[in-house]
Amino acid sequence: MKRVFAVLGFCAAASVLSGCVRLPAGVEPVSPFTADRYLGQWYEIARLDHRFERGLTQVSAHYSYGDDGEIRVINRGCDGPSGEWQQAEGRAKFVGSDDKGFLKVSFFGPFYGSYAIFELDPEYRYAFVSGPNHDYLWLLAREPEPDASLRHQFVKQAGELGFPVDHLIWVKHGDSRCD
């Protein structure tokens, strides 16, 4: 439980220090975008390393509508050394138009960080997501083990946009101490 609070505090600090809600150079959010199709379970396939996710495996995100109409976000991952699931709950709001894949996400009070979907499968099977700068990058998919061609496409496209793809962490799914 202490780690979840540390994660939330770090996310809040990162949001404030990073200028809150902006886009990295070269990143353009997808449009059109339909939130209803994006809702549900996503698996984190790859990410750039950050303290708030360090050491986590089997990371997933679940998106749903909250009672207030905002998008509810539940991020969950297995902390192998402790054998415990770590979870953080947040909320997301659109930045501008709701038909563009640019949202701001908060896991702690009034502090928001960028969530920019810059590549999205037409069937909503995978998404490439960035934060406010080139230090934040994720590959999300509906299945925990997408094919190699998707991984290659992600690395190529993100690299061309200036993300340090040689530092990607490929998230392990399946066997864990948290089952």
Automatic annotation (TrEMBL):
Signal sequence annotation = 1-18
Q: One GO CC annotation, please?
A: cell outer membrane
Q: Which InterPro entries match?
A: Calycin (IPR012674), Lipocalin_ApoD (IPR022271), Lipocalin_bac (IPR002446), Lipocalin_Blc-like_dom (IPR047202), Lipocln_cytosolic_FA-bd_dom (IPR000566)
Q: Which Pfam families match?
A: Lipocalin_2
Domain Lipocalin/cytosolic fatty-acid binding stretches: 35-172
**GO MF term set:** lipid binding
Q: How does it sit in the membrane?
A: Lipid-anchor
Q: Which UniProt keywords apply?
A: Cell outer membrane, Lipid-binding, Lipoprotein, Membrane, Palmitate, Signal
Describe its partners and assembly state: Homodimer.
What function does the entry list?
A: Involved in the storage or transport of lipids necessary for membrane maintenance under stressful conditions. Displays a binding preference for lysophospholipids.
Name of the protein described by the UniProt record: Outer membrane lipoprotein Blc
The organism encoding this protein is Halopseudomonas oceani
